[in-house]
Amino acid sequence: MQPLARVPVFRALTEPQMFGGVTYSFFILNAVLTTELFLITRSFWAVPLALVIHAVGYLASLKEPRIFDLWFTSVRMCGRSRTYGTWGCNSYQP
Known about the structure:
Elements: H1 8-14, E1 18-19, E2 22-23, H2 24-41, H3 46-61, H4 67-77, H5 84-87
Antiparallel strand pairs: 1-2
Helix pairs in contact: 2-3
């Protein structure tokens, strides 16, 4: 039996769309937040802040590219249970 051949195109087809090392959704969210911050403060300090946020996103995306998409989905879909205050996490009784 022959070992499976590794095809580099397969990984590229299964990863999310990336822009500058972060997912496209994170990039758009960073751009929107930075633009809003610039419009509110009227200061160009929003640009270095955008670069810092992008760098944090890049470092977080090195191991798992979908880390922010998974986090967005969990925040949107998984609410807190009634026992969160007691246990400090979501725990469910059978």
